[in-house]
Specification:
The complex is a heterodimer. Chain A is an alpha/beta fold. Chain A has 14 helices and 15 strands. Classes of the chains: A alpha/beta, B mainly alpha.
């Protein structure tokens, strides 16, 4: 009798995977913060290429009832066994790998890139920026490069020279080019989040001040820094159970009433810094607090002045609001999402003319200058 | 489609099992099994399906022709089956030997071709000897060739033993229950032991200089466990599935790592392949009833072919000849004297030799084999801290090594050998359900790793 019951339980579990995948598929995987894969539509050519089978396997993995719980349980088991050893090994100094990230001290990092792996892309990015600048000689271009753990060996202090490669190939005035300089582990630890690739409040403030100096404007005074303790687990901690949440801070500025629009449509705001500061409960992620990656975000102050175009990626989300406070209108363009969200490609000269842009600022790190910008397709 | 894939477990098996139980006649069940088997094969190798069905059709037709006395049928079928094997598996290898490797296009190796070819060859040889009658119904013959539980990795079936089950069989609840348990044990072997040990082996072999002498012996041990639990796990799943569908498939493994000699090891490892070579190659060559020189030649021939069967690469030939030489030494030099050596020492020597054999088997690049062997038999410190610094997630895989070693011995049979009480049955039932859930947990969270023997 017991065997029958156990067998029946197993069989029902087996059948549940099939019925859930086909009849009532889940829309998203909350644990992994991504859409759930659905069962694919059948096509003979996809079947012959094996793509249908791969998609079906991925769909079952996502649609299986309780899959997220099982994944979390596995991650608890996996990290539970490995992390004590990681802590012991990091105490001796140096990087300790765990899956695709590296612990350095208690920071979750990645290893530095070699110049050879990104040199061509950096030179291509420089060529694109130079071409844009020479196409529109009346509009000054500025480049602010954010050095990260990809630009520095945190143990030896050696740098592959990624910034030097980019800066050396740019033909815009040298005083229009700057960087967030990371020369040591202490610098990195001060400016970046422990469980994420993004900069923290201190890094964002440093970057904001230096960008203002580059642009020749005065930064807004920093009124303070609001910190919510132990509330943040960044993308590098995803799936690594047992890594403690870290404090998350936002810089406080006195910003006048701003108006926002995304791809030309008015929106009530960008990000949720005020809600975060007010202590409202909810998921704390970099995107939810500072705003997601918009193809084209426009911020208007409602006063006369210059217009600014910011080209960058998610790093700039943390500083666009104080930056925008110094201009009449500020456009933030994320080339990764621009074409998909606006329905057309990005052409710099057209954009500058249509929006009457007075200055262009590119602010990002190696993932942008060493990949996104150079790869094109935007 | 691998048994340890989520598609097999959740998309394929439940409806096939359900329909199989609902169908009442053997004929309807055979049709279902045949269609399911063809779908199962097409899922993993859609482009190879016509070759499988076409080869089966030709051999089936030739079998009938042979029975009618048409002399050309046997060589025709033989040439076609061996020719397909040669073309898809060995063409590049042999072309490379004569210096034409670059001019031969790389053909996709049809999954399970070595197993199906040997099954078809066995059928032809048995038919020629008059041991069996030719199968008249193609659907039944095709089911014998491509019955999905054994299609990709065996066990290699003999037609004479399979025919009674293809014709009529009983669907018993106790057999289904036993089959499900055997299947789950096989799944556990594959997912929880083989795949985990494989990660450790790959990490160590990936950095031989850091692994040093101790690390490379540990890597050899891990691969030894990986290949055993991978292949025997598949065989358990195949045999378990067979039980669930009313078939009794032959055993393929009998705790090979308990062997006390190399001869003993090969009586316990991949038994259906060893028996195939014994019956269709070794004995026709004269076996051991020949001169000493011819006996040595026969053994070396059989073992070179055994090695080559595993893969079109020199390391497999070397691995086969390694066993050929060991068996010759055992039979001609040691003989009965081996029985006088203490059992523990015999086990240690045999297990070490088997481990070493798997090193030859595993490292397909001849340029990498030399340095690995030099490090294994020289001395270099095991820089485990540096290795862990590369990826410490390997730590969670380490428990598979002692567990695998333990389960290489007949522990479960000793513990669960007798009929249990109600409580014991209850605990066993819950343990199997838990085993399945843990396997699914590992499958969901780890990168999919195909079975090693898919390549053979």
């Amino acid at each position: 009798m017991l065997h029958i019951l156990a067998g029946l339980a197993l069989f029902l579990f087996l059948l549940a995977g099939l019925t859930r995948a086909l009849l009532s598929p889940a829309a998203e995987i909350a644990y992994e913060n991504r859409p759930a894969k659905r069962f694919p539509a059948f096509s003979v050519s996809a079947f012959l290429r094996g793509e249908y089978q791969d998609a079906a396997e991925a769909a079952v993995a996502d649609q299986l009832p309780g899959a997220s719980y099982l994944k979390k349980l596995y991650n608890i088991f996996d990290a539970g066994l490995a992390l004590p050893a990681v802590r012991s090994l990091t105490a001796d100094g140096g990087y300790v790998g765990f899956r695709d990230i590296f612990f350095f001290d208690d920071m979750m990092t990645v290893r530095p890139l070699s110049l050879a792996s990104r040199e061509a892309a950096l030179l291509e990015s420089a060529r694109i920026i130079n071409a844009w600048a020479s196409e529109s000689p009346d509009v000054p271009f500025y480049v602010y490069y954010i050095e990260t753990d990809r630009d520095l060996d945190l143990g030896t202090g050696e740098k592959p020279g990624l910034y030097a490669c980019l800066a050396g190939a740019l033909t815009i005035p040298a005083d229009h080019v700057g960087r967030l300089r990371i020369d040591s582990y202490d610098d990195y630890r001060r400016f970046f989040l422990r469980t994420d690739h993004h900069w923290g409040a201190a890094g964002a403030w440093e970057g904001y001040r230096e960008i203002c100096a580059l642009l020749g404007t005065d930064p807004l005074p920093l009124l303070g820094r609001f910190t919510r303790p132990a509330c943040y687990r960044g993308t590098r901690a995803a799936g690594v159970e047992g890594v403690a949440a870290e404090d998350f801070s936002v810089n406080l500025y006195d910003v006048p009433g701003l108006r926002f629009s995304v791809s030309g449509e008015a929106v009530p705001g960008y990000g949720a810094q005020e809600r975060f500061v007010s202590g409202e409960p909810g998921t704390v992620s970099y995107g939810s607090v500072f705003g997601g990656d918009c193809g084209e975000l426009q911020i208007d102050t409602g006063r006369e002045g210059e217009n600014l175009l910011i080209l960058g990626d998610s790093y700039d989300n943390a500083i666009v609001i104080p930056l925008a406070a110094g201009y009449a209108s500020t456009w933030c363009v994320d080339l990764r999402a621009y074409a998909a969200q606006t329905g057309h490609g990005f052409v710099m000269a057209d954009f500058l003319r249509e929006k009457e842009i007075d200055r262009v600022l590119l602010v990002a790190g190696i993932d942008y200058f060493g990949a996104t910008l150079a790869q094109g397709g935007w | 489609m691998a048994f340890s894939s989520l598609s097999f477990l959740f998309l394929f098996l439940p409806p096939v099992l359900l329909l199989y139980v609902l169908f009442r006649t053997d004929r309807a069940r055979n049709v279902l099994l045949l269609l399911a088997s063809l779908f199962f094969y097409a899922w993993g190798a859609p482009r190879a399906l016509p070759l499988l069905v076409g080869t089966a059709l030709l051999v089936w037709g030739c079998g009938i022709g042979m029975e009618k006395g048409w002399r050309l049928c046997f060589p025709l079928a033989l040439v076609f089956v061996l020719g397909s094997l040669l073309l898809f598996k060995y063409l590049g290898f042999f072309a490379g030997i004569i210096g034409l490797g670059g001019s031969v296009p790389a053909l996709l190796l049809p999954a399970g071709i070595s197993f199906t070819s040997f099954q078809l060859l066995g059928y032809l040889f048995d038919l020629r000897r008059g041991g069996i009658r030719a199968e008249r119904r193609f659907d039944r013959f095709l089911l014998y060739v491509c019955f999905f539980p054994q299609l990709l990795q065996g066990p290699i079936l003999r037609y004479g033993e399979t025919l009674p089950m293809l014709s009529a069989r009983e669907l018993r609840r106790d057999a289904m229950d036993a089959g499900a348990r055997r299947f789950l044990r096989g799944l556990g072997k594959k997912v929880l032991l083989a795949d985990q040990a494989g990660v450790v082996a790959a990490a160590l072999y990936g950095e031989p200089e850091l692994a040093g002498t101790a690390g490379l012996w540990l890597a050899a041990l891990c691969y030894t466990l990986q290949i055993y639990f991978d292949f025997s796990g598949y065989s358990d799943m195949a045999i378990g599935l067979g039980h669930m569908f009313g078939f009794t498939l032959p055993e393929n493994f009998r705790h090979p790592y308990c062997a006390l000699s190399v001869t003993d090891f090969w009586r316990r490892w991949h038994m259906t392949l060893s028996l195939w070579f014994r019956d269709y190659v070794y004995i026709p060559l004269g076996g051991n009833r020949v001169s000493r020189g011819r006996f040595v030649l026969n053994l070396l021939t059989v073992w070179a072919l055994t090695g080559l069967w595993h893969g079109a690469s020199w390391n497999f030939v070397l691995w086969g000849l390694y066993y050929g030489v060991l068996l010759i030494l055992e039979k001609l030099l040691l003989g009965e004297r081996i029985e006088r050596v203490p059992k523990l020492l015999r086990w240690v020597v045999t297990f070490t030799l088997v481990n070493l054999g798997w090193v030859l088997f595993h490292i397909t690049d001849p340029a990498a084999l030399g340095p690995v062997l030099r490090l294994m038999f020289g001395w270099q410190a095991f820089q485990w801290r540096a290795l862990l610094a590369l990826d410490s997630s390997v730590i969670s895989k380490l428990p598979a090594i002692p567990l695998g070693l333990l389960l290489s011995f007949p522990i479960r049979e000793r513990l669960c050998g007798t009929e249990g009480s109600f409580l014991r049955e209850a605990i066993t039932g819950v343990a199997y359900v838990a085993l399945f859930i843990v396997c699914v947990m590992f499958l969901l969270s780890s990168t999919f790793t195909p079975f090693i023997y898919f390549n053979f």
